[in-house]
Amino acid sequence: MDTQARNNLAIYDDVADQWWSDEIRWVRTLKNMVPGRIAWFDKTVDWSSKSVLDLGCAGGFMAEALHDRGAQVTGIDPAKDAIAAAAAHAATTDRDIAYDVGIGEALPYGDAKFDIVVCVDVLEHVSDLAKVISEIARVLRPGGVLCFDTINRNPLARFVTITMAEDILGILPKGTHDPAMFIKPAELTTELKRAGLVPAATVGFGPRGLNRRGDIVVGRVPGRFVIYMGTAHKPFINDL
Fold first, then answer.
1. Alpha helix stretches (DSSP H) within the chain
2. pTM, full prediction
3. CB atoms within 10 A of CB 121
4. Rounded CA gap, 145 and 159, in Å?
5. 3-class DSSP state for residue 223?
6. Is the per-residue pLDDT at 123 higher than 70?
7. Which of 114, 113, 105 has the alpha carbon at shortest distance from 135?
């Protein structure tokens, strides 16, 4: 029987002081996922001068990449030590990024605050998916875009992300994920529509090779069996 504690979000605070050191393999893996994600989101989104919320930003890898594309970035995460590390790194590199401690179920922002919300490696960890999606829709401006990725719920996804990535290869810490919290694409589509968002087609995302350090490099892959990513937009009132 599996007695391992699952969905352990303490891992982000546990390594906060080494987040930008490049010394921890699983943190490097998260960093290596950023270029592949943004390369695909770039096909839909113009980041320049946009107000962007990085929901679940951890130590700031995605937030800094978005800033470097010309976005006005706010990052939020419940891991307070990771947020402190993100803010410190932004300050030492002269990046003007706002960071807040908070959760997706209760975003501390006004209605229609952001042009874009980025939510990657997050939805499969939240306690109330419907509430998080509702909050994202609330803080998006009409015409705004949600960019996301998450993990599909099926035996293959469980095998790849937990048996292989956590238990055998050690690419992720044991207990990072709870397979019961993975989300089927149809389920996520239902929640997006219920919140008033219009989802676009999703695509597969996953390993495409190794870099010189032997770390995984990720990007588009043919199937959505494990990780999938996509976008959804908030329509203008006249579009409804």
1. 10-14, 25-41, 61-67, 80-92, 129-139, 155-158, 185-194
2. 0.95
3. 19
4. 32
5. coil
6. yes
7. 105
